[in-house]
Amino acid sequence: MSNSSGSNYISTEAFYKAFDSLPAIARKALTNSNLDWATSKFAARWKSGEYSPSQIVQLIERADKIDTTKHFARLERMCLTDIDYHARLTEAGLKKYGQATA
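Predicted structure:
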């Protein structure tokens, strides 16, 4: 979905310009991140002195850990739901064909 009509639109050229202006460790963290980030906000805060390169990396790594945890929790819920569904389906089939479990 395009954000081109929203107030946070940034052109591809501006995105890469902001990305290229960041220190190497921040660029590496952004590249390896699970999430899509607004690089211009990091670049602006880094240039203003609000964030150091290590703070940018810590922020990205912390958000990635949270995202990963949420992702695995969703997968676990999906698997448990799927396992429960199949167990009930199997139990119903066994009952139907006279092989019910105790």
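Summary: DSSP finds four helices and no strands in the chain.
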